Structure formats: structure tokens, C-alpha cells
Amino acid sequence: MQKRAARPNGFPRKRFRFHPAQIVAFGFAGTILIGTLLLTLPIAKVGPGGATFMEALFTATSAVCVTGLIIVDTATYWTGFGQVVIMLMIQIGGFGIMTFASVIGLAVLRKLSLRARVTAASEVKSVGLEDVKGLVVGVVRISLIAEGVVAVMLTLRFMIGYEEPLGRAIWLGVFHAISSFNNAGFALFSDNLIGFATDPWICLPICGAVILGGIGFPVIVQLRKHLRSPLKWTMNTRLVLVGTIVLLVAGTVYITALEWSNPKTLGPLDWPDKILVGFFQAVQTRTAGFNSVDNAGLDSATLLGSDVLMFIGGGPAGTAGGIKITTFAVLFFILWAEVRGEVAVNVFGKRLSRAVHREAITVVLLAVFVIMSSTAALMVMTDISLDRLLYETMSAFATVGVSTGITAGLPVAGQVILILLMFIGRLGPVAFASAIALRDRRTAYEFPKERPLIG
Amino acid sequence: MQKRAARPNGFPRKRFRFHPAQIVAFGFAGTILIGTLLLTLPIAKVGPGGATFMEALFTATSAVCVTGLIIVDTATYWTGFGQVVIMLMIQIGGFGIMTFASVIGLAVLRKLSLRARVTAASEVKSVGLEDVKGLVVGVVRISLIAEGVVAVMLTLRFMIGYEEPLGRAIWLGVFHAISSFNNAGFALFSDNLIGFATDPWICLPICGAVILGGIGFPVIVQLRKHLRSPLKWTMNTRLVLVGTIVLLVAGTVYITALEWSNPKTLGPLDWPDKILVGFFQAVQTRTAGFNSVDNAGLDSATLLGSDVLMFIGGGPAGTAGGIKITTFAVLFFILWAEVRGEVAVNVFGKRLSRAVHREAITVVLLAVFVIMSSTAALMVMTDISLDRLLYETMSAFATVGVSTGITAGLPVAGQVILILLMFIGRLGPVAFASAIALRDRRTAYEFPKERPLIG
Ligand SMILES: [K+]
Ligand SMILES: [K+]
């Protein structure tokens, strides 16, 4: 039994009037609004007139939430100005979510360690402005370094392999580097990256940036410090790294095997290209949303497997979406402990804190509820098949951005649902999990214990 | 921390050489085998020759697991002998699952109460043969009474409303009473109960039997004893009753609203008939599997909502399938506790035992895994759309028996998957949950605690 704690959730009262989640939600909404206004300007759109409000709102939300779903073609509908606005929104969205989730993560971990030594009151620390500044600087530095390296690689390739003039090659390199490190999936080609499907010099740097952005800031920081001493890695780092490798291998095998002889996707390719494209697709489906085959041609079973990859997503406190690898891993280890008949849920030699079980379950249940009800609503509105609609809602919620091409054709109400899904999917899991983890629990008194039958 | 317990899981060693779940699995498999052999006899099939092994195996599995999926028409393919065999298998399957789950439930509850007063060693009790005998007698008595009442009602209606001769009316009454109380969904009409869609004198007694069988033996026993003193009801009874009402109302509203003007289903009916059919469909979709409209004509969104109803299913230790209302309710109350920020998960003024959280999660995760992988496998094998395949696998796993009519056309491998799903779905959740609940947990030592980031 636990009493009402005097100290509020690790954040000093005077510095934050709002909960950080509220600040970030307002910040995201504000950025989307500004982006929407900029995109409705006539100079943002090719040809006469400006974009409609809905086109601008959808694009801005998709960019700030680093999703990549589009209802107008990024390459041909927007001018250079419009594309720069999109790129900046992606960068702001990426910075925002990484910083926010890292601050929240720090607060959660500090709260836990405080609980463990609750008597040492002098050691009470909270997350102050200095910490936030430090995190912002770290996030910006790592993002710019990663984006810079990938931008140079892509620029060189666009110059050498595709004879683009220097200026355009740099622009393409920078845009796609930012879009990939931030897991946004926006591309400056009307067919996304299908034109580069068999070019590893384009595909692999983009995959590298996507994976790096997707494992999350805390893991990147730890790898920089302790790359060669895995014994020092936290449970978070281990789960994210192992989970990433498992999902990449399983995803590549699943997609490549199912699409191997599909004439609309991998069928016409040689076998090394099949594997390259299968791997690319597995990397992108987890969270980034680029595509090097036409997703509309994928087999239904591939779509279903992709839904699972999207739902799980990437690492926490990164640019990836979904419920996060760690959340999924917690459920897996609970299951494993039950199957093996163990009292505690142990993960790589550490005991999993019990509070985390319920956090993970709650995030998953809410995510399932949101996705299912959105899908049902879209089914009522349209005649599109379940596999495509589920792929679309999963893509929006997990801020992935892949689509079988139905986005633009949805009714306005359907597009509004996707906008809400992107926003909720981007901020919801981390905000909700942190709200649970940081809250001071209250118990009036304990009820007597009882249990129903299960199964 | 908990030591290895000396006493094994509540069952005395000498009386049971196998775990009860193993005995029941062998029993079910044996009954299916005998039924299969009987159904391959030429006297079981109309016309020359006998049924194929696959037809007989599928039908026997569907009957013993009280599912109701069929690949040949019960009404016209089987002779009276074959139909009697099916009826007997339904009855044996229903008795079997109710007794098994009740015995298991008793053992789980006794183990829990023993733990609560672990010092009182003299009070140690286990589930012995007398208990099992008592439960069997109780199950048989309640089943026969309920089936008898419904059989009489149906027989009268078939005589009076449809001018069936006495013998045939009794046969129809008995068969459909057994099929409905045991939630089997087999019917002796080629269009199932579509011909009686607007006849409340047929539909409502069948719904009553289905609901009664589906709330489970422990709830029926408690209602008989303490109908008028709800304060004495266990958490199990409360959850099942409240959950049943909520699901029936929500299901009726959802289905009726979505199908209201669908020309293939409720469209042509008057509004009172729309509501009757919608209610009937909501009752049947949860677990029994009769249908009074053509399921193939249902809207995709209705199929998706039906999937949810099927997945949840009915009460534990009854003839219903699915993960069970209680399992779903546990997840719901965990979510609710997290949203409200409470330390303990409280259900109707009782604290939910913590072990139950992990039991419920484990059952749900395994169920999702089994259903998803079966669905993906069927998607690879066929060109059928996801909404129909998911409806089919959910129907098999939750032993519901509704179908959009694709069962007979599936390849043999697909039908084998459905057979396995019916068997696993019938015994899996209760066997797995009980194995978890009854096992003596072992802990070598405790690891230090740590947590990853969630969301
Ligand atoms: K994305
Ligand atoms: K059934």
C-alpha cells in the first residue's frame, strides 16, 4: 500500500505549469497549424492558386508527425518553397518527439531510482531545465551529424550515378537524409523510391539512417559511450537492439518469401535485388514508410505481416512510431515467464519492474482500441477491403506512411480520421505511458482479494 | 519470493496420473476419432458410398468442439443415423468441456484460498473424485433440464406453427435444443435458421438456451442458489453477467445499425423483425453460431465487429468459446485502473488478484498469435479477402461456427488449419490458464530490478 506522495512526479512545480505532455501536444498542434498556413500560400503550390486547407492540413500533420502519408504528390504538387516547409516540419517534428520522449524517459527512470532509495531524501532530484537543455543539445547534435553523413552519401550518389547537377543533388541528398533519419518517408519522387529499388547506394544509406533514427536517442547515446562493453547496456538498450535485429531479419524473410514470385513486386527482379528490395521493405515498413515497390501490388498476407511490423514499430525516444519494441518485448517476456512458470519476469538477467507490465498492457490495449475503431469507421464510410484499410490505419497510427494508394481517395471524414490517428499515434503512447509511470498513485484502502476464472 | 511447494497443484497424485488437461485432450481426441469412424460408415451418409475421411473428421471435430462449421450440409448430406451421431458428439463435447473447466476452476479457487491461509495445514484439501462426480452430476442435470425445456418449446412450435408430425417435431426440437444449449450451432435445415428469422417462437427459446449454456456452469449454480442475493455473488458471476448484458446490448445495436438498410440482410424486413434478427445475430455471433441471415451478405464492418464478439466469447466453464468474458474483463479493469491511477485493480469492490493479470494477458496473447498466424497461412493459400478469412479463423478458434460460406471451398490444408483451430480454441484457453494458475512457481533467486521505456 502506498500513500499519496508529496512530491509531484519528478518535475519541479515552478518550472512547468503544464505537464510536459500538454506542452508538447500544444507545440505539435501549433507547428502543424503554422505549417498548414504556409502550405496554403500560393507560392507553396505549383501552378495558379493555393492548396486547399485539407491538403495543407493533411500534409502538415503528416510531416510534423513524421508519417509520410500524402494526399497530393510531394514531388509535383508543391514548389521548392513548399518542399522546404515540409522538410523543416519533419525536422521540427523529429527533434520534438525525440526530446520530449527523452525528457519523459529520464523523469521515469529517476522516479524509479528514487523509489528504490526513498529514505535518502537529500538525493531527491527532478528533471530541470538544465537537463532539458542538455538533452536538446544532444538530440540536435546527433541528428545533424547523422543527417549530414547520409546527405553527403546521397548527394554523391545522385551526382555520380544519376548525373544530377550539384545544387539539385545536394537538395535531394539533404531532403532525403532528413526524411529518413526522422523516419518520415516523404520523397521528392512521384513514385517514392521505386526508381532506386535496385540501387544499394541509395537504399542502404537511407536504411541506415532510418534504423539509427528508429532505435532512439537513449540507445544511440549509450552506444556512443559503451559500444564495446555490452555488460553496461541498460535493459532498454538490449531490448531495442535485439528487437530491432529480430524484426529486421524476420521482416525481410517474411516479405521476401511471400513476394518472391509476385509479378507486381519482386517477381521480375534477380535474386540479389529481390533480397535488397525485401530488406528495404522490411526496414521501411517498421516505421519510415519509404517504398521501393508499389505497395498496392503486395500480397494480402504481406500486408497483414506488415501490420504487425508497423504496430510494434521502433525504439522509444526516437523518431519511430508504433507501440515501441520495448512495449512489445515486455508482453513477450510476460508470456515467456508464464510459459516457463516463473514468479518474476526476467529480461536478460534483470527483473522486470511490475509497474511496467500494466503500463505496457495499457498502451497496447488503447492502441488496439484506437486502430480497430478507426478501421471500423473507415469500413462503414468506404467500400475498400479490410486488408487495405487496416494497412492504412496502422500506417497512420504507427506514423509509418506506407499506403496501398487509397489515401487521396478517402472521403474528407476518412482523411480527418487519419489526421487524428497520426497525431494520437505520434504522441499518445509515450504521453500515456509516461502519465501512468509518473503519476502518484492513490489508494483509499485495500479491498479483499478475489479472482474470476480465466480462459 | 516463493519456494518450491511440496504439494502438487491441488490434485492428489495417486488419483490422477496425468494432468486433467491431458486426460481431457485425449478424451476429446478419442471422441473425435470415434465420431469420425462412425460418420465414414455408409449408413451415415445419404446416397451410395460413405463420406470421405476429411468430411467425417471435419464434421466430428466441429461437433465435439461444439463449433458448427461445416463442409457438407448437415440437413441433406447425413442420414438420420449420421445426425444422431453428430447430436451425441455435441452432447459429449458440451458435457466434457463444462465438467473439465468446472473441475479446473474448483482446483484454481481452492489453491488460491489455500495460499491465503497457508499455515492451516490441516485444512489442505484437493479436488478428489467425489468432487468430480458431484460436478458431473450437476452438469448433466442442469444440461438435461435446460435442454428438455427448450426441446418441448421448440417441438410445440414445430408442430403448431409448421405442421410437422409429432415424431419429426420432437426430433427437430431435441436436436436444436441440444445444439443450442451446447452452443454448437448445427441445424437440420440447409439454410441454418434463415427460414425462421422472423419467428420469435423459434428464435427466442434458442437464444435463451445459447445464453444459458454460454454463461457457464459456476454462474448457473450460483444463480440457482443465490438468485435474489446478488451481494453473495462471486466476482466471476458478476463479471459474466454484466459482461453478457453489455455484449448483448452492444452487439445488437452495432449489428442492427450497420445492417439496417443492407438489402442482403436486414433491409427487406420490418423494423421489429430487424431488431429480432439483429438480436439473434448478436447472441449467435458471440459463441453459438446459428444464423438467421446469410452471413455472406453482412457488411465488412459487421464482420469486424463480429470478430470482436467472437474473440471475447462467453463465460468460463460453460459451452461458450473465445477467450472468455472474464479474461477480457480483467484486461479492461487493468486499463481502467491505469487510467484512474489506482494502485490495485479493483472489480466491483474486490481487489483483483495479481496473478490473474498475467494469466489473462498470456491467454490473450497466445490467442492473438494463433489466430493471426492461421489467418496469414490461409491468406497465402487462397485469394479470399482478409475480412472473410479473419471471420472464419475467429469463428473456428472461438468455436462459434459462423461463416461467410468459404469453409467447404478451402483447400485441404486450410481445412486442417480450421480443425486444429477448433481443437486448440476449445481446450487451449482453459488448459493454458489452468496450467499457469495451478503450477507451483519456482524461483532460483531474484534478479535486480530494472525497466525499459514504454510507448
Ligand atoms: K514515417
Ligand atoms: K458454436
UniProtKB/TrEMBL annotation, chains A, B:
Residues passing through the membrane, by range: 21-44, 50-72, 84-109, 135-158, 170-189, 201-223, 235-257, 317-339, 360-381, 416-438
GO MF, one annotated term: monoatomic cation transmembrane transporter activity
Main location: membrane
Membrane topology: Multi-pass membrane protein
Gene Ontology CC terms: plasma membrane
Top-rank lineage group of the source organism: Bacteria
UniProt-annotated location(s): Cell membrane
InterPro entries named among the record's database cross-references: Cat_transpt
Tagged with keyword Zinc-finger: no
GO biological process, one term: metal ion transport
This protein's UniProt keywords: Cell membrane, Ion transport, Membrane, Transmembrane, Transmembrane helix, Transport
Protein name as it appears in the record: TrkH family potassium uptake protein
Species name: Cryobacterium melibiosiphilum
